[in-house]
Amino acid sequence: MTRWLAEYAWLPDHAEPTPEVLIEVEDGRITAVAPLVGGGTPTAGVEVLRDATRLPGLTLPGLANAHSHAFHRALRGRTQGGRGDFWSWRDVMYDVAARLDPDSYLALARAAYAEMALAGITCVGEFHYLHHGPDGTPYADPNAMGAALIEAAAHAGIRLTLLDTCYLTATVDGAPLVGAQRRFGDGDALRWAERVSAIAPGNDHARVGAAIHSVRAVPAEQLATVAGWADRNGVPLHVHLSEQPAENDACRAVHGCTPTRLLADHGVLGPHTTAVHATHPTSADLALLGESRTGICLCPTTERDLADGIGPARRMAEAGSPLSLGSDSHAVIDLFEDARAVELDERLRTRRRGHFTPADLCAAATVAGHAALGWGDAGRLAVGDRADLVTVRLDSARTAGVPPVGAFHAATAADVRHVVVDGRTVVADGRHLTVDVPTELRDAIEAVTNR
Fold first, then answer.
1. How far apart are CA 151 and CA 85, in angstroms?
2. Catalytic residue among 186, 305, 328, 345
3. C-alpha 378: how far from chain center
4. Most C-beta atoms within 10 A of its C-beta, which of 19, 231, 393, 400?
5. Coil/strand/helix, residue 14
6. Hey, which residues does 209 pair with through a beta bridge?
7. Please, which residues have CB within 8 angstroms of residue 87's CB and are 6 or more apart in sequence?
8. How far apart are CA 271 and CA 77, in angstroms?
């Protein structure tokens, strides 16, 4: 048994952190959570405190990054300085996508996932569509690229939900995949399902989920095939939704309805589905998403970087959609920044303050993200849950003098000092224990950008 004594810990259903909490862990699970102030008693008496490792600062449940494209990490600093929009940025992204193979993707993803660990992320949802060789020819192992991502997460010490993505067409009206897109496609949804059914992670750190890239990429008549596969296998289903007004316009032109309505009509929405972005929904879309309990993954640092716009987060939550967070393109890997952006962007949109409480933001970054990725036993400091602990400094230049409840409005990823995943320490004193993150990022990015 391992014991940790948190100076402050954010416990489930608490509006703010609790001081002096003893957390006991055995076999990767939390076996006891005992506040020592106000009447709490350690399970084995005060003597156990001698064995407990002190965690100065605020200890949170593990953060969940519900939407990642690992290879986009190679774009950081290379696309932010120019003009353009999402579509011009996409051309640069495709150039990097065309250069990756299983070995280079393993190196890049390992470094990116290790950077996530340093930021307090204990689980990531990888929205994976780089399936085949650059010309679309499958590798000898048709899931070699997915296997590289599974291995990368294991090296980095975090859990992974591989959201294997069906990507069949280039446009809503069914234009074929060309150029770098050719490596994304399986021909049709049945062949996609056959390929993804063969993935066997072989380790408790990884699970397989499903994704529909978007209504641009999966013809309407094949949406139900993907949704049905996810339902039969009891796995999460994710989908890019209404990230751009142009996507909404094209869907209306071809199908006479919004993308949300199209997904609803083909059985895609539901409590095991997460819509990513949903930046430009109609009021009717919000009702469909909320009534079906479809989750929404917001990616504020990417959405502002790509000039996507600001989605109506408060209205989404009020409609009934659970909110989670993702770093998406990894322009920034900092879920504290993404969490507070949910509130701050809403302030910009409405010119009013106070839409989400600190506890709301904490839940979006932790338990809601894990649930969206199919890990219902993670994201809380609670008995029986996975022992994921993330400790944030309260004495840095950013957090000094800040009450613990203010961490999501003040801290950054740089303030994460200690990370435990499934009971195993991955980050200690701000250092990853097995990966030289800056060096590996530099080398992996240079290998795929020739710079």
1. 34
2. 328
3. 14
4. 393
5. coil
6. 163
7. 244, 246
8. 36
Of 265, 316, 314, 310, which is closest to residue 293 (Cα–Cα)? 316
Report H helices in 351-406. Answer: 358-365, 367-372
Residues in the chain: 451
Spatial contact of 311 and 279, defined as CB atoms under 8 Å apart: yes
- The one catalytic residue in 67, 277, 330, 370 is 277
For 451, the 3-state DSSP assignment is: coil
pLDDT, tens digit only, all 451 positions of the chain: 999 999 999 999 999 999 999 999 999 999 999 999 864 455 445 566 878 999 999 999 999 999 999 999 999 987 776 777 776 777 888 888 999 999 999 999 999 999 999 999 999 999 999 999 999 999 999 999 999 999 999 999 999 999 999 999 999 999 999 999 999 999 999 999 999 999 999 889 999 999 999 999 999 999 999 999 999 999 999 999 999 999 999 999 999 999 999 999 999 999 999 999 999 999 999 999 999 999 999 999 999 988 899 999 999 999 999 999 999 999 999 999 999 999 999 999 999 999 999 999 999 999 999 999 999 999 999 999 999 999 999 999 999 999 999 999 999 999 999 999 999 999 999 999 999 999 999 999 999 997 5
277 given a catalytic annotation:
yes
Question: 175 to each of 137, 185, 260, 339, 428, how far by Cα in Å?
Answer: 19, 12, 21, 37, 50
Please confirm, yes or no, whether 328 is among the known catalytic residues: yes
Q: Are 340 and 307 in contact (CB under 8 A)?
A: no
Neighbours of 405 (CB within 10 A): 18
Structure tokens at 193: 């399902």
Q: How far is CA 432 from the centre of its chain?
A: 20
Nearest CA to 120 out of 417, 352, 342, 355 is that of: 417
Q: Which of 15, 1, 109, 10 is nearest to 65 (CA)?
A: 109
* Alpha carbons 250 and 199: distance in angstroms, whole number: 34
* d(C-alpha 270, C-alpha 326), whole Å: 20
